[in-house]
Amino acid sequence: MRWFWLLCLTIAAISDIKERTVSYGILAVCGICGVIYGCKNGGWDRFLGILIGGGILAVSKATRGAVGTGDGWFFVASAGYLEMKEMWWLLLGGLAVSWFWGAGLILFRAWRGENAGGDTLPFLACIWPAGVWILLQKEGIVRLLS
Question: Per-residue pLDDT tens for 107-118?
């Protein structure tokens, strides 16, 4: 099921890049499967990760959509698949990638004499590398989080 979660993340990240929005259908399917998986394999403590998604949704509301609601809903949907520690790594990994991506974009625009003020970053694409890393770690292919 965690590979299914990565598939959902991949589809959502591609949608975020291409359309600057995330399909609520993919979020719903991912979330429903995540609830079933989380209840069978992790119990209710696994759903503490919903707090991270809720925090992102609150920031989205406070910034009037500068942070996407689809990002927050994806974190809510991911709570059934990931432990709280993994949710934090996913968030921090995504923030690190987005920081480097954003800094590179600003430097590139400045080098060309352009303004980067209207540019946006697809955050789900930024969390994709962290999602792959977490999944590989969980499968025993990589041992860096333990």
Answer: 998 898 888 777
